[in-house]
Amino acid sequence: MPDRSSIPRPAAKRLSLYLREAGICVRIGRQTVSSRQLGEALGVSDAQVRKDLALLGQFGQSGVGYDASALYQQLRQALGTDRNWNTLLVGAGNIGRALLGHAAFEAEGFKITAVFDSATSLVGTTIIGHRIRPMSELGSCVKELRVRIGIMAVPRDAAQVVADQLVRAGVSGLLNFASRRVELPDTVRILSVDFTGSLERLAFEIHAAEGGLAESA
Amino acid sequence: MPDRSSIPRPAAKRLSLYLREAGICVRIGRQTVSSRQLGEALGVSDAQVRKDLALLGQFGQSGVGYDASALYQQLRQALGTDRNWNTLLVGAGNIGRALLGHAAFEAEGFKITAVFDSATSLVGTTIIGHRIRPMSELGSCVKELRVRIGIMAVPRDAAQVVADQLVRAGVSGLLNFASRRVELPDTVRILSVDFTGSLERLAFEIHAAEGGLAESA
């Protein structure tokens, strides 16, 4: 088993992308995948791929490549996605519903076990197979269902309050869709999905390309 | 005006985060912001902040900090978000509707000028103030409305076909919400928002923290 503590964070990010590619290979029944194919998919060199995968103790065979299925399993183990992660969702608005309809989550080991909303008009209704629960049940739910990750799809003004409630309830990490930074204790991890920030970065890429920023910069 | 070609990409990513923070300062009426405040918001050192902002020719005054409003304007100019970017949306499902309801886009200079869907049951209906157009109007719309960015909120199986249509129509960049990699010509930029990938990275962060990965790694 790979020593997680020896994997630098940037490499870990690439490993999650190799995992995606290896998963596709497994699903379409491909037996092997080369470092060149993985590199092309991610836009990195095949030397970088070989270096990253050597972190897992995976060494492809020259001219043959990596065994797709073995690579997939080792990547899942290294990234911690070989076990199931119970999650819960706060916010049953448009983004929340989009996430509930996202079948890929469960396939990848992330199960949305419960859905919460503060709107009394939604509490008790069923959305995409989930009964919407009141926020007052958050604490007991995290404990009973052993929830590790809270997904926040709430308006920006509610973000900090909901984050505080999730932290008190005992989650280890937050996936935040509210475009607002929230303050958290150091023990809780957070990852934000920021739609406007993504558009800004894309606009900069276009802008920079037009302004002559070197391709390799 | 800063020379865009001199800004390395990792710095550009941080600049878009400084822009967010400077925008918050301007909105709440704060006159100045220090490198330490900016650094804390992003989790980087104040020395890094000063180095990044020096790329724009911005030098804070010791003990006073940066003029928030001037910094905001210079960041917008450097990142190309001082002009308006016309965008269009393909896909009026849950994610598409969440994006249409996302008021922050227009405030930040990204206007969704038109919405398309391939479902005949949706074409012609109005969703959050937008009449849904048929895909056949894509090409003329990009030209007439001078659309630069196509936002794809389509099922993964449709992603490549829709990307090809957007490229043929002449957009400069794609924001992709389908969890599938698409092939594009080098002239077109793409940025993908991948929900499952985000959960995987978060899970890895938690997993690594439990496994003793150094905080500073």
Mean of pLDDT of chain A = 85
In spatial order, strands of the major sheet of chain A run 5-6-4-3-7-8-9
Structural class of chain A: alpha/beta
Number of helices of chain A: 9
- The rounded distance between the terminal residues' Cα atoms of chain A is 36 Å
Brief summary of the model shown:
The structure is a homodimer of 217-residue chains. Chain A contains nine helices and nine strands. Chain A has 217 residues and is an alpha/beta fold.
SSE topology sketch:
The structure is a homodimer of 217-residue chains.
Chain A (H helix, E strand, L loop, with lengths): L8 H19 L4 E2 L1 H8 L3 H9 L11 E2 H12 L5 E6 L3 H7 L3 H4 L2 E7 L9 E2 L2 E4 L4 H7 L4 E4 L6 H11 L3 E4 L12 E4 L2 H16 L7
Parallel strand pairs in A: 3-4, 3-7, 4-6, 7-8, 8-9
Antiparallel strand pairs in A: 1-2, 5-6
Detailed description of the structure:
Two copies of one chain form a homodimer. Chain A has 217 residues and is α/β, with parallel strands linked by helices. The first copy, chain A, has two domains: 4-79, Arc Repressor Mutant, subunit A (Orthogonal Bundle), CATH 1.10.10; 85-197, Rossmann fold (3-Layer(aba) Sandwich). In chain A, 43% of the residues lie in helices and 16% in strands. The first copy, chain A, contains nine helices and nine strands. In chain A, strand 7, helix 8 (159-169) and strand 8 form a beta-alpha-beta unit. In chain A, helix 1 (9-27) packs across helix 4, helix 2 (35-42) packs across helix 3 (46-54) and helix 7 (138-144) crosses helix 8. The two termini of chain A are 36 Å apart.
